[in-house]
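Issue 218. Parser rejects a valid record. Input:
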Amino acid sequence: MAAGNRAADTAYTQLRRMILGGELTPGARLAEVELAQTLGLSRTPVREALGRLGADGLVEVLPHRGARVSLWTESDIAEIFELRTLLEPYAAARAARIGVAETVLAELRGLCAAMETAAAEGELAELAQLNSRFHALLIDASGNGRLPAMLTSVMHAPLILGTFHRYDPDALARSMGHHREVVAAIAARDPEWAASVMRSHLRSAAANISATPREDP
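Output the parser choked on:
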């Protein structure tokens, strides 16, 4: 059983990396036999990994048709940002209200610096990964244990969609500034400020995506 769990974990980790890294693009079919051969595993752990990725929102499991990397329509994207705009300002406000350990604030600031470096160097895939870590850490800092599970399936969308490729220099600079400001608001223990900045950050991202023509696979 332990060996089976390890194989499923390996399949999950590798497939997740391939999806988030763009090796498996939105809409790509995920055939168990081919994936098992690619990963050097049997079909059983691959099937289990696909189920877990489905729960994460990265994969769509289609009845009688196998699985594919998740696709998002413009309506899906709008719903995703609507949900995030409701929940993440709450998370930021709660983190500010309850207080965050200095070690966590230092990690958030470190991620801000790393994102700024990635943006300056044009490493947009790295920027997207760092951005995801920043938002996940902030959600954890809220102290509400239910929030991560509620947001898991929507937090990956910007990674897969290549959101930062759609930003012009001004929008990118604005996004980096929002990250810094929300950390400052949390450090100042000002819930209204933290929520306001996070709300502006997400609305700006949503507006930027909707204003940019989408390149569907």
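Fixed in the parser; the record now loads. The radius of gyration is 18 Å.
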